[in-house]
């Protein structure tokens, strides 16, 4: 214990200029439990809360320690004496070690418990009787006529909300209007001092069971007016708002109405994390956890007829810069994907030799005799690990296909939008880092439809795409960490040529992607030394994916999502067919 105290005291002094305290203090350092070890705030709060009230928990990006501030010294002492060197937290192999601190280090946190600008919570917007009436008015629609998504049950009124497009079809109103029990919303808002200028004409009802959530998103600007209204029934939940580096948590009490207007509606994503409890602030201003129940949300919107005229252009789809008519999607891909990979194929292959563990596990798990197709196979780095499967690759790059042949693997030249294979012939399909090179949403959906077409009834397809968020849950991806890699030179616009008609930014390698832009050019530098002339640098087109975007594409393409996850800077989906409305098993 003394050796460990000396080690962690040194770290504390070096990083924060703070000294440990020989006396009990309300400030405690958890020396060996932090984000880099997979420990989160909820783990710490659940473990330490039984010993007393906790004012704050601070975790530091990329560090293996954290800090807890108790309300009183007595609470901290109870935790210290019971846990130091004894308690094992989730995902840890040994006990935690604690230090008292003279003061808390100055740590800037991007997570706060308050509403973003333009967001308002009206508590007790309805009473208990109205809550029951509202739920009864939609219950049958949820259970019988609603669509069941991977994370929740849903029903639509007025217009159907199309999750794949995050939009509605304005020309196709539903025969089912909003329940009459909802007619009071406008007048009730006025009673609470909010003058709503319109009556809602679209309602989406979601039912969340404990552990379910919805990915972060912004309701499409061009689809709906301002504001967006969300009424919470049956259970309290925490909704998370994000804008760039800011992360704000908003508690939605049961029977409250959330009003998202202005900045919170147009510029912040909102979502609900998939977990069974939430961290909330109690009456003393201390953190505590609250178990979730089943929540039903009523989201009220008004269909927008004219283009959006908000003042948040960088987030507005009505004013998003698109390639000019001279550069259609097929031309963009030909110039900035196909030609590039022909030029860099040898260098690209030399940097792509180590299989990703999760993908390799799937390949090794296949039954003898399985047919494996790798769409966008590159140099076929996932082949050759099983002698009992039939493997075939598919790629557009002649240079990469030549390398695959030299390595002894079979591969054909084709485009992922039109695969040259018969229906229902593939048991396992891999599509790793491919469809993020497709330059339109419709083309990405078409590629997934092609994958489903060639899958057998029991087949599975695994899709990986590059994530816009390269610091998921506080942990940086290898893309951000590996500064010595051949792409590590932080290139700007200087010396890089592109067609003036294509209005897309050039990404600076090894940095975070801009929050307002998903379509970018990513440079590839052929030579390792920084003095190489710009002609050896090529621009590749990428569409980097938001959380939940790949899932939405798969659902719209007609796939069943077996599982989805984040893997080191990539969003990933394992999918299968749905045949005749019934899941193929």
TrEMBL record:
Give one GO term, molecular function aspect. Answer: tRNA binding
Catalysed transformations (reactions): 5-(carboxymethyl)uridine(34) in tRNA + S-adenosyl-L-methionine = 5-(2-methoxy-2-oxoethyl)uridine(34) in tRNA + S-adenosyl-L-homocysteine
Q: Name one Pfam family in it.
A: RRM_1
Q: What class of enzyme is it?
A: transferase
Keywords (alphabetical) are: Iron, Methyltransferase, Multifunctional enzyme, RNA-binding, Transferase, Zinc
What SUPFAM superfamilies does this protein map onto? Clavaminate synthase-like (SSF51197), RNA-binding domain, RBD (SSF54928), S-adenosyl-L-methionine-dependent methyltransferases (SSF53335)
Q: Which InterPro entries match?
A: AlkB-like, AlkB-like_sf, AlkB_tRNA_MeTrf/Diox, Methyltransf_11, Nucleotide-bd_a/b_plait_sf, Oxoglu/Fe-dep_dioxygenase_dom, RBD_domain_sf, RRM_dom
Enzyme Commission number, as recorded: 2.1.1.229
**Does the keyword Disulfide bond belong to this entry?**
no
Instruction: Tell me its cofactors.
Output: Fe(2+)
**Gene Ontology CC terms, in alphabetical order:** cytoplasm; nucleus
Report any one BP term from Gene Ontology.
tRNA methylation
- Origin: domain of life: Eukaryota
Question: What function does the entry list?
Answer: Catalyzes the methylation of 5-carboxymethyl uridine to 5-methylcarboxymethyl uridine at the wobble position of the anticodon loop in tRNA via its methyltransferase domain. Catalyzes the last step in the formation of 5-methylcarboxymethyl uridine at the wobble position of the anticodon loop in target tRNA. Has a preference for tRNA(Arg) and tRNA(Glu), and does not bind tRNA(Lys).
What family is reported? Answer: Belongs to the alkB family.
Return the PANTHER family for the record: ALKYLATED DNA REPAIR PROTEIN ALKB HOMOLOG 8 (PTHR13069)
Q: What protein does this entry describe? A: tRNA (carboxymethyluridine(34)-5-O)-methyltransferase
Q: Which organism is it from?
A: Apolygus lucorum
């Amino acid at each position: 214990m003394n050796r460990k105290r000396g080690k962690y005291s040194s770290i504390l002094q070096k990083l924060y200029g703070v000294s440990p305290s020989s006396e009990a203090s309300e400030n405690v350092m958890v020396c060996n439990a932090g984000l880099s070890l997979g420990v989160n705030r909820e783990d710490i709060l659940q473990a330490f809360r039984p010993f007393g009230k906790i004012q704050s928990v601070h975790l530091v990006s990329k560090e293996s320690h954290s800090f807890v501030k108790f309300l009183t010294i007595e609470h901290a002492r109870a935790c210290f004496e019971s846990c130091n060197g004894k308690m094992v937290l989730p995902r840890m192999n040994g006990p935690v070690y604690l230090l008292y601190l003279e003061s808390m280090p100055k740590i800037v946190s991007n997570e706060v418990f308050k509403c973003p600008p333009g967001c308002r919570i009206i508590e007790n917007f309805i009473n208990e009787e109205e809550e029951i009436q509202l739920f009864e008015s939609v219950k049958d629609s949820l259970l019988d006529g609603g669509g069941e998504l991977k994370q929740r049950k849903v029903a639509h009124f007025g217009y159907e909300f199309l999750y794949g497009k995050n939009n509605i079809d304005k020309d196709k109103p539903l025969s089912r209007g909003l329940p009459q029990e909802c007619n009071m919303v406008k007048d009730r808002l006025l009673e609470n001092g909010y003058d709503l200028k319109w009556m809602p004409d679209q309602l989406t009802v979601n039912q969340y069971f404990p552990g379910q959530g919805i990915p972060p998103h912004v309701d499409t600007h061009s689809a709906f007016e301002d504001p967006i209204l969300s009424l919470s029934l049956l259970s309290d939940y925490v909704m998370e708002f994000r804008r760039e580096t800011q992360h704000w948590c908003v508690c939605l009490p049961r029977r409250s109405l959330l009003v998202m207007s202005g900045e919170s509606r147009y510029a912040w994503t909102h979502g609900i994390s998939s977990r069974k409890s939430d961290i909330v602030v109690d009456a003393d201003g201390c953190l505590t956890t609250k178990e979730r129940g089943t929540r039903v949300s009523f989201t009220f919107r008004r269909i927008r007829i004219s283009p959006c005229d908000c003042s948040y252009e960088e987030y507005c789809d009505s004013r998003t810069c698109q390639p000019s008519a001279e550069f259609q999607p097929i031309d963009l891909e030909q110039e900035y994907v196909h030609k590039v990979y022909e030029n860099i194929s040898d260098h690209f292959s030399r940097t792509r030799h180590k299989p990703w563990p999760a993908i390799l596990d799937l390949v090794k798990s296949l039954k003898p005799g399985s047919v494996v197709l790798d769409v966008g196979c590159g140099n076929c780095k996932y082949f050759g690990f099983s002698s009992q499967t039939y493997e075939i690759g598919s790629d557009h790059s002649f240079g990469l296909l030549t390398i695959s042949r030299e390595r002894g693997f079979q591969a054909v030249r084709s485009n992922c939008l039109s695969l040259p294979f018969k229906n229902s012939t593939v048991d396992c399909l891999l599509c790793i880092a491919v469809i993020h090179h497709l330059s339109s949403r419709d083309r990405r959906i078409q590629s997934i439809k092609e994958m489903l077409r060639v899958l057998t009834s029991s087949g599975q397809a695994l899709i990986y795409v590059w994530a816009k968020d390269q610091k998921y849950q506080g942990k940086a991806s290898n893309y951000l960490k590996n500064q010595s890699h051949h792409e590590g030179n932080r290139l700007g616009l200087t010396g890089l040529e592109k067609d003036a008609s294509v209005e897309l930014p050039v990404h600076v390698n090894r940095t975070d992607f801009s929050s307002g832009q998903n379509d970018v050019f990513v440079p590839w530098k052929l030579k390792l030394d920084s003095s190489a002339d710009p002609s050896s640098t090529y621009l590749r087109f990428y569409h980097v994916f938001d959380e939940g975007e790949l899932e939405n594409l798969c659902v719209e393409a007609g796939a069943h999502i077996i599982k989805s996850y984040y893997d080191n800077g990539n969003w990933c989906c394992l999918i299968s067919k749905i045949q005749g409305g019934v899941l193929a098993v």
